[in-house]
Design brief:
24% of the residues lie in helices and 27% in strands. The chain is α/β, with parallel strands linked by helices and 375 residues long.
Length: 375
């Protein structure tokens, strides 16, 4: 299937955390100030060196398209009308390092073409790094995305702006309505929450609750028309672990019961389970997409070098979930090797089994090699 199979089918591409700061920013054509205030690393170029030690030299500067690597021909083949990612990076050359945080991510605004390289992209901003450089850094981030014509949701100059959805018009006048929210369990400080007259992000509390789900559903459905698709993008949970809390399951189910069509979770550095609930996908965690974590040890059992993108085909009465297996090498996305595809497929199948989800390879030889279906 390339793009739209017919007038009733639309395609959305979903990815988890896209971190374009620090080492990634340093290999792009306009690297920003490399200074860091981390406990062990004080120069962002150190992360480039670690990646090179792991997988070989990176000739710098790289083209803006290079970090996406083998994703670009896949996008050309399937032509998803919407590409939704969690942008876990402040876009600023200014601002101050947020206190009481050990890690800060920022990219130079002049490197923004690395995002427009996969246009039309929508950025979810409600996460634990969008205010790494304070409200000035957030203002720069919002301005940079707006100037580039990149839609965004989840953060803004005040609460109303942070809660406002991204509205993406499809060719047949249907829309994709996207809101972005964050939970304190992902490390988002309470002080980052937007208020009336105060910039910040849409933070729904320290943990997901049914009351919060009702509020989020009410906000997104107020903008949803007949035949629109409503997506809630949520940053929640810890960096590592396949377990899904009962509160997360109840929250996601409440959204779907209310009329939301797709739940797009992220925060963990690896994929988490997939559930098909009442015919609607719940992606409890999409994992990382692009980052500078190569060469950093620990958590090997999760295979954090392996990545997934999620291709969702939306029909009037059904959704198809297909998974694109990838790996990161020298800060570039590559198609996963056969053994890596097998590991990903078996792992997602295993962790999703309790949700009644079957993950199976596709026999058609396409770069999308497996799909998730309800048992």
């Amino acid at each position: 299937m390339a793009g739209i199979d017919n007038g009733d089918v639309a395609t959305v591409l979903l990815g988890g955390d896209v971190m374009l700061g620090r080492g990634v920013d340093q290999i792009l054509p306009q690297p920003g100030d490399p200074m860091l205030r981390e406990q062990y690393v004080h120069d962002a170029r150190t992360y480039v060196e670690l990646a090179e030690l792991a997988h070989g030299p990176i000739a710098r500067p790289v083209d803006f398209r290079r970090p996406w690597g083998d994703v670009l021909p896949i996008l050309a083949q399937f032509a998803p009308q919407v590409r939704l990612i969690n942008l876990e990076t402040s876009i600023t050359a200014d601002g101050w390092f947020a206190p009481a945080k050990g890690i800060h991510y920022r990219m130079n605004p002049d490197n923004l073409p690395v995002l427009t390289a996969i246009a039309p992209v929508v950025c979810a901003l409600a996460n634990n790094h969008v205010l790494d450089f304070g409200t000035d850094g957030l203002s720069d981030t919002l301005d940079a995305l707006d100037i580039a014509g990149i839609q965004r949701a989840g953060a803004g100059e005040d609460l109303d702006n942070a809660c406002a959805p991204a509205l993406f018009e499809l060719d047949d006048r249907r829309r994709v309505v996207i809101v972005s929210i964050a939970v304190g369990s992902s490390g988002v400080p309470a002080g980052w929450a937007a208020r009336r007259g105060r910039p910040g992000l849409w933070r729904i509390g320290d943990a997901p609750s049914l009351r919060a789900a009702d509020g989020v559903a009410s906000e997104v459905l107020a903008h949803k028309r007949d035949r629109d698709t409503a997506i809630v993008s949520i940053h929640w949970g810890p960096n590592w672990g396949y377990g899904v809390a009962l509160s997360e399951i109840q929250f996601a189910h409440r959204l779907i019961d209310a009329g939301v069509d797709l739940v797009h979770g992220h925060s963990a550095h690896h994929p988490r389970p997939i559930e098909i609930y009442r015919g609607k996908p719940i992606l409890y965690g999409c994992g990382d997409v692009i980052d500078d974590y190569e060469g950093i040890g620990g958590h090997a059992r999760y295979r954090p070098d392996l990545r997934l993108l999620y291709l969702i085909s939306i029909e009037p009465d059904a959704m198809q979930v297909r998974l694109i297996p990838l790996r990161i090498r020298r800060m570039r996305l590559e198609s996963a090797a056969h053994s890596e595809c097998q590991w990903l497929c078996q792992t997602i199948e295993h962790i999703s089994h309790a949700f009644g989800t079957r993950v199976a390879p596709r026999p058609d030889g396409l770069p999308v090699v497996f799909e998730a279906v309800q048992r």
